[in-house]
Amino acid sequence: MAGCMFELFPLRNFEKVLSVNICHFPVLRVVIGCILAITFMLPETVWAVELSVSAHGRARFRHTDLSNFRLDAKATQHEQEKWGHTLLRVYPEARVGESFLIRGDLQMLNGQLYGEESTHGQSVVLNPWKNQEASEQFEVREAYVQLPVGIGLLRVGRMVSHWGLGILANGGDKENYLFADASHGDISNRAIFFTKPAKAFNDGRLGEALTLAVGADLVERDELTDRSEGDEARQFVGALLWKESDLEFGFYTANRNLEKSNGDLTKATAFDLFGRWEGDLSEDLSLKMSFEGAYIMGTTEQARFEGAQYPLDIRQFGGVLKTDTSHRGLDMGAGLELGLVSGDNSPQDGTARAMKLDPGYKVGMILFEEVLSRISARSHDRVVDPELVGTPPKGTHLIPTNGSITNTFYVHPHVKYSPWGDALEMQVGYLWAMAPADVVDPFSAAENGGYNQNAFGVNNANGTLGSEFNASLRSSFDMDGYFSIGVGLQYGMFKPGAALASEEGVEGLGTIHKVRFLSDLSW
């Protein structure tokens, strides 16, 4: 729904727009109070401009069928073959002129609606494989105000954090993955200032394209932090970005001091380089290229190994490169994605080298999203089981991957054909991935005297993780610009490689199949 124009409505009615009882959500009370205070401080000339209000939103439904594969050498299965998942988010927004903005992101639903459940890792995984009550799914993802301050813009409040392709900071809301959905989402209580530093002396391309951002965060939730559980993470962020319609190039850094609820400290700095370019190679042929690379360094007390230095050093890196070509005359396109993410062949040497990309970043349908995430969740459960382990080692909560891409080099080509535009889009993709470092199951390794071993009893398991074939058929229709609807069907098949093989006499993963029915509505 396009933004409508009308005279400013009484601010005392603002709480009613949210359609929730704000007494139950302290963050809403704080943000609304700040907005009201800022409102009364603004000069009357600002309010002479009409108010533009919009309330866009989206809803999605997914039904999934998945093979019931094994998770360890004991033939434990994940036991979740059929389930349904829903998402509903509404984005209320109010603008006064070009600079003053009030924005929200209200999540009403985001969880499993029905179907079978899996108990593995329920106490630690970010999204447990279980049915959830609607009351558990409500979340205020964004509630911030933006206003002009001197030579730039200031945003204050709660907001999602996203940079570049999303391998380091991912807001969990960009639906640009071929065979998976955006998920999770990094959320911070943030004050951030944006400015165009060259605009004061250059009104041309330099003045418009170069943007500088600096900010301070109290992290609300991401894959490492949950403030509701007593974690406290303070973070400073900065970015310098050249941004035009067909070219983006920038550098981002974040310095974080995290204190977990148990007192463990992590001090780390992340550096990230991102670029994007798109253009026409001929009258019908276009090319898009993008890349992002990240490096993290620091120290952490969240894990400890006997005989190794403490706290652990952090030295991790990862990156992806994506290319996409499209031929307008043939209604066809093709693309290639390459990724490299560090692993750790010596997890007990005092340096944590295995990077996990943000779990909101997706590639493929099965390997990372289902196989590795569920195997690692089962591994966590075995390590903390008092009947199997006397005293669990420190850092067990870090074992589940939560679907993150880690310890891999992968190649992901794909082809797209759209004979009738958005009315019918067909895509086929192939994912091949290998593990440069050993795939290690902590419990199996402990049973093996500390030597690297995977969940199925194979020592020093590295090399090919497996190959995955994916296909997608989707159709979407725009209803006069007011809303759009879409439906689709996706299929994936995964065959494990040597890194996920089983020892002789143990039945392993086998071939895994996944089918998803998709339904989307946006307005």
Q: What keyword list fits this structure?
A:
about 525 residues; mainly beta; about 45% strand; 18-stranded antiparallel barrel; 6 helices; 20 strands; single chain
Kindly describe this structure.
There is one protein chain. With about 525 residues, this protein is mainly β. It is built from 6 helices and 20 strands. It has helices at about 15, 25-40, 45, 205-210, 365-385, 440-445; strands spanning about 5, 50-65, 80-95, 100-115, 140-150, 150-160, 185-195, 210-220, 230-245, 245-260, 265-280, 285-300, 310-325, 330-340, 350, 410-415, 425-435, 465-480, 485-495, 510-520. It has an 18-stranded antiparallel barrel. A hairpin with a 3-residue loop joins β18 and β19 (about 485-495). The radius of gyration is 24 Å and the shape is globular. The N and C termini lie close together (about 5 Å).
> Could you name the ranges where pLDDT drops below 50 across 5 or more consecutive residues?
1-25
Which outline best applies?
globular
Please summarize the sheet with the most strands.
18 strands, antiparallel, barrel
Radius of gyration: 24 Å
**Number of helices, where a helix is a run of at least 4 consecutive DSSP H or I residues:** 6
CA(first)-CA(last) distance: 5 Å
What's the average pLDDT? 90
Helical residue percent band: 10-25%
| Coarse structural class | mainly beta
Strand content: over 45%
By DSSP, the count of extended strands is 20
Order of H and E elements: EHHHEEEEEEHEEEEEEEEHEEHEEE
